[in-house]
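Run log, item B.
One chain of 179 residues. Sequence copied directly from the ordering sheet:
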Amino acid sequence: MNPSDLNPSSSLKSRFTSRFLRALTKVNAQKPISPSSPRQIFQHYRRIKVAADKSMAYSVRSRRSWSRAILWKLRSRYSPHLVSSARRRRSVKITSAIISRHQGIMKKPSHENENKASTVENHQDNGFVERADELRELVPGGEAMDLCKLLDETAHYIKCLTTQVQVMRKIADIYSLSE
């Protein structure tokens, strides 16, 4: 199958499509799986997922934090010696980011009237911080991002995931028609 058959409308889509098709070819060239083995089916699924993630991250290149985080995770999975020093540096960054993010919540107001208003604000801030923390867990590399950067990266990551789904659906449609 040729990437131009998928009629990509953007350069991101065409870069992802060509990389993903090459990666799928490599995955399918590996030893064939037997449909009766759940372990082999899961391994095949993991290879396809890694191929999709890697293809999307390379398509975006290193312009985005989430793509760098995915590529680092994939590289560190295969090169454990890279993980030890980088993990130490990363944990220091994450810890300092968490401390600075939560410092505003821990401050106590000095006046009694401000205390009531700030209790409501702190309660609302806690809910907002919790939602932002949940978002940080979903976006690769989001743990050390400030809120503005996190929202920007999230929007781009969602756009790329949408592109990934569109391409994968088109591939599945093409293969289902050929059978």
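Observations after the first pass:
- The chain is about 80% helix and 0% strand.
- Helices lie at 11-29, 38-60, 65-78, 80-106, 112-138, 147-178.
Flagged for discussion on Thursday.
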